[in-house]
Design goal:
Elements: H1 2-14, H2 16-30, H3 39-59, H4 72-94, H5 96-99, H6 101-104, H7 114-139, H8 150-173, H9 179-193, H10 209-216, H11 220-234, H12 242-266, H13 270-273
Helix pairs in contact: 2-7, 3-4, 4-7, 4-8, 4-9, 4-11, 7-8, 8-11, 8-12
């Protein structure tokens, strides 16, 4: 078991150049044949953010600020930017073995790199959106500061969380194609169960609010969204939330161990059903 846990990271490191090349090609191939090419990869998420802001920030809230007085557009962007990476990485990563089935069937190809290729491809877009968020915050008077450094920490946490989940979902979907639909439904629920487009402090006005807040914080992605907002808005270091940090890494380790077990147990049968 311990050997299996160490094999996956070593395989990824050994194939790092291949992973980088495939991730670059994957990003280009998404929009192959279109006039603007990969530019669409950056236009689409920005348009999505603008639509969410119009609906939830202007139409429904009249442009009101969040609970702590932060302009709602900034509160929205600091939550939806990591969520869009989580969503994109989980969906594309889950389908990675199906999309690259011709490589899975090759005996000599290390298929463990395929989910990572999808995550790195999506990471390029995420980096662009983080830069977009920084510019937007600067326009509102929130200039870059030392707390922005921890965005890199939360970005690593986000990447590892997606990877730990994807090795399970991508392995299961090979045998159970409905997994793709299940992931999509869970993402639709998750965007509301995580305070991405609404302020968790609004629950304080209800007698049952504190209980619901504790339950929602069990969602490991809450740690990520909370962290991005700490860096952009609250200016708090991740070690100031000791319990959340310990819980997140404990969850991540358990999830990684389980995913590694599932992947190693099923990968030998992928070629038989693809």
């Amino acid at each position: 078991m311990l050997k299996d846990l160490c094999t996956l990271p070593s395989d990824l490191y050994r194939n790092r150049r291949l992973v980088k090349k495939m991730a670059k090609n994957d990003l280009k191939s998404r929009f192959a044949g279109s006039y603007f090419g990969t530019i669409w990869a950056f236009i689409q998420p920005i348009v999505t953010i603008l639509v969410y802001y119009f609906v939830f920030g202007i139409a429904m809230r009249g442009g009101a600020a969040s609970g702590d007085g932060t302009p709602f557009v900034l509160y929205l962007v600091s939550g939806i930017v990591p969520w869009m990476y989580f969503q994109e990485g989980l969906i594309t990563g889950t389908n990675s073995f199906l999309e690259y089935s011709y490589l899975v069937k090759k005996v000599v190809f290390d298929i463990s790199v395929l989910p990572v290729v999808k995550l790195l491809s999506a990471l390029v877009i995420h980096l662009f959106l983080v830069a977009f968020a920084m510019i937007l915050f600067a326009c509102y008077g929130y200039y870059p500061n030392i707390y922005y450094l921890e965005i890199l920490y939360y970005m690593i946490c986000l990447f590892l969380l997606i990877l730990a989940i994807v090795y399970t979902t991508s392995s299961v979907i090979v045998f159970f194609r409905d997994m793709g639909q299940i992931v999509s439904i869970l993402l639709q629920i998750g965007v509301w169960m995580t305070p991405v487009m609404w302020d968790l402090s609004f629950l304080n006005g209800y007698s049952w609010g504190s209980t619901v807040m504790r339950i929602l914080k069990l969602n490991p992605f809450y740690y990520i969204v909370h962290g991005y907002r700490n860096a952009f808005i609250e200016q708090r270091w991740f070690w100031e939330d000791k319990l959340l940090t310990v819980y997140f890494w404990a969850f991540l380790i358990v999830c990684y161990v389980f995913s590694t077990w599932v992947f190693n147990r099923l990968k030998g049968h992928f070629a038989d059903v693809l």
